[in-house]
Amino acid sequence: MKKIYFSLLIIACFYSCSKDLEKYPLDAPSTATFPKTESEMKAALIGCFAPLNFRFQENPYIIWMDMYSDIAANRDNTPNSLWGMPTAGNVNNFWNSFYTVISRCNFLLDNFGRIEGASQKTVLETEATARFLRAYSYSVLTQLFGDVPLVTKTLSLSEAYVSRDSKSKVVDFILEELDKAAENLPDNNQPNTMVVAKVAAWGLASRVALYNERWSKAIEAANKVISTEGKQVLLNNNYEAITQRAGKTSKEVIWAIQFNYNDIFHETPLSFRSRMAGGFSNRIPVQALIDSYECIDGLPIDKSPLYNPQKPFENRDPRLGKSIALPGSIYYGYQFETNKDSLQCWNYNVNPPIRVPNLDATHNFASFSGYCWRKYADPTEQHASRSDINPIVIRYAEILLNYAEAKIESDQLDNEIYNAINKIRLRAGIPIISAGKTKQQLRSIVRKERKIELAGEGLRYFDIIRWKIAEKLLEGPCYGRIPRGYLSSAPSIDENGTPDYSLVSNNSQMRIIQTRTFVAGANYLWPIPDIEMQTNKNLKQNPGY
Hints:
Blueprint: H1 2-21, H2 38-49, E1 55-56, E2 59-60, H3 61-64, E3 72-74, H4 79-83, H5 89-110, H6 120-145, H7 167-184, H8 198-211, H9 215-226, E4 253-256, H10 268-272, E5 283-285, H11 287-290, H12 319-323, E6 324-325, E7 330-331, E8 334-335, E9 344-347, E10 354-357, H13 359-362, E11 372-373, E12 392-395, H14 396-409, H15 415-428, H16 439-453, H17 460-466, H18 470-473, E13 476-479, E14 492-493, E15 499-500, E16 512-516, H19 530-535
Antiparallel strand pairs: 1-2, 3-5, 4-12, 6-11, 7-8, 9-10, 13-16, 14-15
């Protein structure tokens, strides 16, 4: 009896004293009180940004995205192997990273009432930024997975088994959130900071609306950005600089993911640079992109009298040589030459220049396509294996093309379409588009322009998916250059800027980098990650997986 009484006494004491035992941690914030101060609020917002720094091997996810498309290749994997099954690592990483952003934004938005001592302006801007980040995360998720769970608050464990909401409903939410965010985001566009400005919310809204065929909303949102031209946004006169360190502060950049050398850096130059420059050359542009660039007369290479198959890089759109390291050019101080007979090349990093063994022709893992990226590979970077170039999420040229495409697809064929496209072409140094084009002609022009202007910036995959042309572009062989020599004639170029090599007499000599697979009935959407399907029985898998 004494033992029983003593046990009951201990239990009674435990319950009566339990409130006194509930102590908040002394060395870290508690979720019961955090965020309470302005500094904690700012720390919470930084936590919302942090998952967006996720990388695949050396590359931030934005730069990596083009490896899924027809214009670039990852030497180590075919696109389908990276996202074409529920257990693929990229599938899980995208899902987890963006839902982590959403979860953190939800927590911050749920708890603004706790914050003491911060000005109303600071609180409103922080809230608007969290709304923007949550909307951006949902925009990527819906484009990849279609219907996704729309979670707008911090969930308890019992609420965690959510089902998928329709893509249309989630897009409605995204556009509403971006409108709310724009009301309180700052006016001033500060590209090389973590500040998200109004133009970023409008720019993202133009993209989301365009991708979901909400033409009037896309036009309206893009127009708001265009109205700030010369103040908050401006086309950079130096196209090549936009994706280099020199472009980090350019007003063409509307929003970019922030990196720095000290703690949050990426190693994109390692995977982009040539072998002579000490790189791996395993993330590369492919022949189908090279041949999409027009000649300086504004005609495709299969129509232009200026195109010479034996000198294929002459008389071409200047953006070709500014985006891509071409054979015969200087790249990181070396003569870049990928013809397999070029056993030596010039090293211009010494004075006088000297001839040295050419690894870009002889190394087993030199560029499989014969080309390397110049975008996001800056020879002035101080660290051989580190980069602090900010991957661009939204820039002004895209907004102009969003605007033009939405006008075309909504049958508003007016001069504003030509103005938007021609601003970009004038900056590039190629002939402007003359008036009087049909809808079909303008659609072709804007699709080709997006392919060239935005190459290497992570948007191509989304374009070919939403235009429903991926089944043609991502099925079959992916080509590099002929290892010794050039194509005998120009390939034919279709209305989307896609080369067809079937009638080129020596096409069999082209290097096949990889053979790709795309299943039209399934692959226009990614699968829901397998681990999510196992742990949440309320989720239903996408068709074909």
